[in-house]
Amino acid sequence: MATNTAHIHSLRERVDTINLTVAGLQKEFSRVEKDLKSLVTETNELKASVISLNKDVEEGKANFEKSNEEHDKEINTLRLQLLNYEVYQRRENLRFYGISEEGESDDTKETLYKLLENRLKMDNVWTIEFQRVNRLGERRQEEQAKTYYSVFSSLHRSRSGLLTSSYPR
Known about the structure:
The protein is α+β, with helices and mostly antiparallel strands. The protein has helices at about 1-90, 110-120, 155-165; strands spanning about 95-100, 130-135, 145-150. It has two domains: about 1-90; about 95-165, Alpha-Beta Plaits (2-Layer Sandwich). It has a three-stranded antiparallel beta sheet with strand order 1-3-2. It is rod-shaped, with a radius of gyration of 49 Å. The termini are far apart.
């Protein structure tokens, strides 16, 4: 019987050791379970933050695209206004192409008057009022046809008289 009692006592010690080990494992399992819940909560919060950030980015992108479209419209409007201003500014201008520069004259008005008088056979060319006459391009030694740009002082009378008299009759 003494062996049985010793055997029972040995089994009880083993059971107590197992119970202590199980209790320690239960505590560790509870801690791990608590940490896991905390991690799940944190992960859900991070997911919500990412979703919110993605929403903010999409809203920002939509606002940027809308703003970009508005700026494009404004740029196009300003380009059209600039074109209208340029057209309005040039309404009294004419360009004459293919004028050969003969002689040493640097007086562009005189060159243009002579062209109108000699080549276009216009009368009273010296009464046409030019505000400015400019040569476009550089003056070179060799004979080359140039383009002249003229701005009329009185648009209707001078410019229309020049245009009508330049057509063959």
